[in-house]
Each structure stands twice: as C-alpha cells, then as structure tokens.
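Fold it.
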Amino acid sequence: MNGAPTSGLHVRPADLADADALQELSTASVRQVAASHYTGPQVEAWAATRTLAGHRQMIRETTVLVAVDAAEVVTGFASIALTPTRQLERGEVDQLFVAPGHGGRGVARLLLDAIELAATGAGVTDLLTHSSWRAAPVFERLGFRQVEQESVQIGDQVLTRALMRKRL
C-alpha cells in the first residue's frame, strides 16, 4: 500500500449535501487517475458526464456510500442499486471513485466491503459492474471476474471497459 492506511477513515451513507464533493472527486479522478488508461478526448468526454444533477440523481436513486476522514472530507465513494432503477439492475455497482492522492490506501476495498455488506443485507446474491480499465484490477482483487469487454459511446468517443461479476 502507498501512503497512510484507511485506519482514520469511516464509511457513511451519502446525502444530497455530498453531491458537490462527489461530482468534484469523480471529475478529478477521471482526469487524473483514469487518464493513464484512456486518450485525452476519451477522458474529457467521460469527465463531461460527471454533472452535479447526475450525482444528485445517483444519491436519490441508489445506495451511495462515502469514505470520509476524521474531518468529514470525502476520499472516495461507491454506489449500488439494491433495487432496479431506470438505468441499473439490482446488484449493479455503478460507481467507484477514489480521490486522486488517496489511491493505494485501501479506500476502494473499504467502500466495496461496505457495498457488499449492504447488498447481502438487502438479499442481493450477485454483483455486477461496468468497470473502467483503471478500476478493473481493484475489482478483480476483491473477487470480481471479467465476463466480457464492452464498448460505450460517450459523445463522439467510444470507450472500452470490462463487464465484471461477483457471486456473494
């Protein structure tokens, strides 16, 4: 692990007041962390999808958990659909973002452990995610397996990613 471990962090449910922080964190993560796996135009197309309205909708429609430090600064977040939504199926881990500078410290593991706990508590037996290539190794270390490679159109860009599943 790089840097300080997650010992000073805790996970809590997100609320609408967190939407700004989540939008800023995910945009920064796409631009700074995912940029090593995608082209500049792909990164900018993806970053453009990270809207405040979209983050508010995510908080309203899914279970969003945030990792925060002792000062309540958000260091990462993850979301799961415990019930189907307009766009997600039950058990779909839709978002996993860790703030730049906090990678390699166990934040993603902390969040995904909490997501799994929420999922099993809701009777979900299978998880799936559409993972970026940057996040795929993290999901794999935590028991997800790649099922197939997918392509997604974002504006005029096509990004590839991994469809991954995990049986709980």
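DSSP finds five helices and seven strands in the chain.
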